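During the second year of the project, the team shifted from modelling isolated chains to modelling whole assemblies. The rationale, set out in the original proposal, was that interfaces cannot be judged from single-chain predictions alone. As a representative example for this report, we include one of the complexes processed in the last quarter. Its constituent sequences, exactly as entered into the pipeline, are reproduced here:
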Amino acid sequence: MNAAMNQGAALAPGNIVPGAAPPRLSVEQATYAYAATDRSAPNFSLSPTTFQARRQEIVAVLGPNASGKSTLLRLAAGVIAPLSGRIEIDGVNLSDLDLRTRAQRIALVQQESELLFPLRVWEFVLQGRYPYGRRLRFESAKDSLLAGNALSQVGADALAGRWMNELSGGEKQRVILARALAQEPALLLLDEPTQHLDVGGKVELLRRLRKLADEHRYTVLVVTHELDLAAEFSDRIILLHKGKCLRVGTPGEVYDRDLLQEVFEAPLDVDIRPNGRPRVTLRGNE
Amino acid sequence: MAIAIENEIRGMHTLTARRVVGVCAILLAVLFVAVVISLRMGAFPLSIRDILATLVNGLLGRSARVPSEFALVVFGLRLPRIALGILVGASLATAGAGFQALLRNPLADPYVLGVSSGAAVGAILSIIFIPHVPGAIQAAAFIGAVITIAAVFFLGRRGGQLDSATLLLAGIVAASFLSAGIMFLMTTLPGRDLRGMAFWLMGDLSSPPPTQNVRGWFGFLFVLFAVAAGAIYLTASDLNLILTGEKEAQHLGVNVRRVKLVVYVCASALTGLAVSVSGAIGYVGLLVPHAMRMLFGNDYRLLIPTSVLGGAIAVVVADTLARTVVAPTELPVGAMTALAGAPLFIYLLRRRVR
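Output from the structure prediction step:
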């Protein structure tokens, strides 16, 4: 394990391109710890983690349960502040941004709370325009236009007039993504977006994210359990295990058979497909 | 223009300030009609024409043109009671809409949560211990409301989360406990009869203003109401997002903590205000916002002003019925609101459980 960790540390500095504009998202030696009370020992801690994400990049955060994936995402979202280290978006320290400015730069897509009062799809998507309004402002024509565009970008125009609680899992996921796009963020964070989707839905969602990153210059950070989809669609992988960042790099660099087997505690094979991207298969009892 | 047509096709009718003003104008007209009808009802017969003439001349300061008995009945007897009803209804409905967002619970209401009873206990304690201090009843009712909602909040938590069923049970238990407390306290008050008890337990609008300066008194109450309801209205956009989910609202840039504090303090103040002048009138805070949701949707930018006006209409109508259906005696207005509100509460509860 130590060997793997050192390797990760050695790979990390290679991500920095000298002389270029500041990366969209820069996480430098960020740490965090959860504890039940202020005085008790932490139940979980995230060791110093460093990585960058640039424009048009999809970065996938992989790791088994309780490896610190969601913690890393929450740090990047600014929901929690790192105990030490720095997190910057476009060169600005995340903790220096007020809530609204942060919401104009970063959109977070996660499992939604249950809706207690019925809401139409377009009303939900228009909520994404909140960070741009002031008190009691009524939505402008521009807000409606951007909300409409966001729905188009996720292929959900036809859903605009529907009730949120009548949507299927896949439709709801698209609408939630549309609300995030209506925020016009620079950084799009997704917490296990494929969780309740079938295979077709998963592929469709990742294709869409790829397209959004390529055509609309979003930077996408996605937490997922889908090893193959991550290998296929992401530019960079962050592999976490028990709160430690083991490796950061391209799928080819991170998908090492021994490393993956150790981390996921499962017999896995890794081979390279014709397009150069790795593929992971589960080995049966041989 | 093209955008508007496009949105029309998509079915996206966004809420505009114009729609808010339009809907409120309609409700204001309904309130006016309710007020005129209420002015007409009673032992002393008045025609609609007499009422309108009295109102217009009175408001224009031409009191000489109005027969003195008309002026006495309209401005001296019936209008103060109607004004009190407007104030109480508007306060309770706004507080109810606020609590529903704050607790993310469609069944929240100052009465169901026990807040009204807590405010009543505070008010009675102030009558016993510091009588004759101006504003003391309002302040004590506010403190009683704040303490009760804090206790119900605390008791309604399960595993660190606010649980709808636990919260309602906590509210019901708090309400019955506090009602028993009110009964106990009432027995220690000299010269209060059973009717006085009904005032705190059921809600009643028949008690006269505590001072001779009726205008000043109403001015004071309406300013309090305007400040608290205005502060809640300023958070309307935030409440829309909080209703969708607190986490999500935070990510979208809402300062959830601050908004909740503002709504908590102001909704408690409105409850305290209403209870201090009318006792614990039930269900207005539940029934009115829900009726407004059904009519105009869940957007708080429209829901708060419509609840203000709807609450006023509801209590004016309920009080008119309360003092006329069994004339010459009167029912407490809370009995009327409970008659209409309890079945609606059951209906909402069942619809939610399904």
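The CA atoms of residues 73 and 189 of chain A lie 7 Å apart. Residues 1-17 of chain A have pLDDT under 50 and may be disordered.
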